Amino acid sequence: MITTNDFKNGLTIQDNGNLFRVVEFQHVKPGKGSAFVRSKLKNLRTGALLEKTWRAGEKVETAHIENREMQYLYADGQTHVFMDTETYEQLEIQEAQIEDELKFMLENMMVKVITFGAEVIGVELPKTVELVVTETEPGIKGDTASGGTKPATMETGLVVNVPFFINAGDKLVVNTDGGEYMSRA
Q: Dmax of the chain from CA atoms?
């Protein structure tokens, strides 16, 4: 158990049987009345954001989650198989749980699988991934490198806005937080 005075970004807590990660928080000390903590929490099971206000010093239960480095092996219908590279133990995760992350994942990629006890919460991706462009409109001579953008479909099916000079077959570095083009690989 910790108090709300110990909140920090990235902290995982339990509240009413739900798991939350603290996205942001703010200690507020009004001129009249007692201090409180305003927080923005992300539900780790549903992905929903929740804003909650706590009394200063209120006790909160921490959740001990585990991040295990695993390799994404393959998809088997609606199930995706991951393997621990040290113990060779395999773990199956349903597609609905990692739907957003699948847009960035290739076979044999290393990811962190987040677990709470025996329950799999989700997958944490690296900050950037390298993906190959499978389809985009060809660049036309005279298009500027700093001008506009065009959509490009990556090998995982992800659509990213890229500069005009990018062509099919180019390998790009893509940010996994927002799915934006970073640079050529």
A: 66
Tracing tokens 């699948």 back to the chain, one arrives at 102
- Integer-rounded Cα Rg, in Å, for the chain is 21
What pTM, to 2 d.p., does this model score?
0.75
Per-residue pLDDT reduced to its tens digit, 54-103: 998 899 999 888 989 999 999 988 999 999 999 999 999 988 888 888 99
Confidence of residue 144 (pLDDT cuts 50, 70, 90): low
Which residue ranges form the domains of the chain, and what is each CATH number? 2-62 (2.30.30.30), 65-124 (2.40.50.140), 128-184 (2.40.50.140)
**CA proximity to 46, closest of 75, 77, 17, 7:** 17
